[in-house]
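Reviewers of the previous submission asked for a worked example of the structure-prediction workflow described in the proposal, so we include one complete record here. The input consisted solely of the amino acid sequence. No template or homolog information was supplied to the procedure at any stage.
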Amino acid sequence: MKNIKLIIPALLVLFSACSEATRNTASSKSESTAQSTTSSKNDSLEAKIKINGNVAPGDPLLLRFVVYNNSDTVKSFCIWHTPFEPLMSSYLSITDEKGEEAQYKGAMAKRVMPPPASSYSKVNAGDSLVANADLLKAYDLKKGSSYKVVYTGGNMSGLASKDTVTFIYTEVH
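From that input alone, the workflow returned the following structure tokens.
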């Protein structure tokens, strides 16, 4: 039942984006061009993640999350499952060198569906928004391990990120 509550809003966003892209391009471009712009939702808003390489105990482990709008119109995305809200859910896959997933220990918010209008943030055409999150506040990481981080919150936020970043949580010497 929870999956249906997540799928329905995602489909509504997808269909509305497809409809808008088709409407905007059909009058001035060929059918093949219009077809390629129907998938522009993911192409126009792109998320990039970055973590500084090595992190020592006691230092914050900052994830830098940037949303780029590569289109020529204002776009919006749901801030849920992104660093644009306080850590309220696990939206990252963090695995160590053995392939073991780091435990999420942060808050888990229950959500009302569909997301209210206040849950969306706009990004101007050609612009970007930046948010940071300290991952040590929400994930149980072992000192002396290297980790791989992948953003997995795209089903809720509507953002896609192809990035995989790595870092080492060093031990005190």
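The first strand starts at residue 45 and ends at 51. We consider this example representative of the routine output the project will generate in years two and three.
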